[in-house]
Specification:
The protein is an all-alpha fold. It contains 1 helix and no strands. The chain is about 85% helix and about 0% strand. Keywords: Membrane, Transmembrane, Transmembrane helix.
């Protein structure tokens, strides 16, 4: 019961990890004013 929930959570994480990292990087870049 708990493992099913965990598997779904991990799948969701993996699915959203790359967009999340991209957004985080863009946000970090805009805060630091780093040119590409």
């Amino acid at each position: 019961m708990m493992t099913d929930l965990l598997d779904e959570y991990i799948a969701l994480l993996e699915h959203n990890l790359i967009p999340f990292l991209g957004i985080s990087f863009l946000f970090y870049k805009s805060k630091k004013n780093i040119p590409i």
